[in-house]
Amino acid sequence: MATTTKAAAPAKKNSGFQGMKAAWIILVICACLGYGVWYFIMGDPDNFIGGDRTGHPANLLGTVYKGGFVVGLILTLLFTVICLGFERFFAIRTASGKMNLAKFTAQVKDAIRSQKFDEARALCDKMQGSVANVVMASINMYQTVEGDSTLKKAAKIAKIQQAHEEATQLEMPTLQMNMPMVATIVSLGTLTALFGTVLGMIGSFQALSAGGGADSMALSAGISEALVNTASGILTSWVATVVYNFFSNKIDKLTYALDEIGYTIAATYDSNHTEA
C-alpha cells in the first residue's frame, strides 16, 4: 500500500479561455452587425435597378434585402450562433486539457490502480483542464480519508465519491456555458423564418386584393420576402443544430471520462482496504 503522508494539494485551476459569461454582449454586437449587413450591404443602391431600394432587385443581395427587417433579425441569430460556436470551441478546448483525453484517462486509471499518486498528479499537472481538476480533487480526498482512522471504509468511499461529484459540478458550468442560448436559437431560427414567411404572404395577398387586381411588383415582393425569410431561417437553424450537437458530444465525452475515472478511484480504495 502506498504511503500517504503527503498533504493534499489544491486542485489546479484551468488556464486559458474560460468562456464568456455575458453572452448578451455577443447578441448586441451581432444585432448591430446583422442589421448593418442587411441595410448597408444588402440594401446598397447598386443592388437595385435604378439605384432605388424600393425598386426591383438587380442581384441576389438585393433580393435578400427585400425579405424585410426580419432578415436582419435572422442574420443576428446566425452571427450569434457562429460567435458562440467559436466561444465554445476555445472554452471546451481549454477545459479538455493539453493531452489526448483517451490517453490521459487510460494512464491516470493505471496510475490510480497502482496507487502511484505522484504519477497521477504529474499527469494532472501536464493535462490541466476540467478533467485534471476533478481527478486531482478526488486524489486529494483519497489521501485525506486514508489517513483518517475515525471513519469506516464505507464512509471514506462516500467522501471520495462526494469530492468527485462536487468537483465535477464546479467544472460543469464552464462546459455548458452558453449552450442553452445555442439551443434556443435552434428553435428561434425556424420560428423567425415562419414569422417572416407569414409577413411576406400577407404582403402578397394585399397585392392581390388591391384595386381588385394583382400588382405584379407588390406580389413578387411579397413572395420574395416570404421565400427569403424561409431560406435564411432554415439556414440559421441548421447551423445552430450542428453547433449544438457538436459541442454537446464533446461535453458528453468529458463527462463520461470524469465518471469513468471517479469510479476507478472509488473502486481502487474499495479493493485495497479491507477494514469494515
Give a brief rundown of this model.
This protein is mainly α and 276 residues long. The protein has helices at 23-42, 60-65, 69-96, 101-113, 117-127, 129-146, 153-176, 179-209, 216-272.
What can you see in these coordinates?
- The structure is a single chain.
- The protein is an all-alpha fold and about 280 residues long.
- Helix content is about 75%, strand content about 0%.
- It contains nine helices and no strands.
- The protein is rod-shaped and about 90 Å long.
- It starts with about 20 loop residues before the first helix and ends with a helix.
- Residues about 1-10 have low confidence and may be disordered.
Show the helix and strand layout.
Elements (H helix, E strand, L loop, with lengths): L22 H20 L17 H6 L3 H28 L4 H13 L3 H11 L1 H18 L6 H24 L2 H31 L6 H57 L4
Helix pairs in contact: 1-3, 3-8, 3-9, 4-5, 4-9, 5-6, 6-7, 6-9, 7-9, 8-9
Oligomer category: single chain
Rg over alpha carbons: 28 Å
The average pLDDT score comes to 86
* Topology, number of strands: 0
Which properties best describe this structure?
mainly alpha, 9 helices
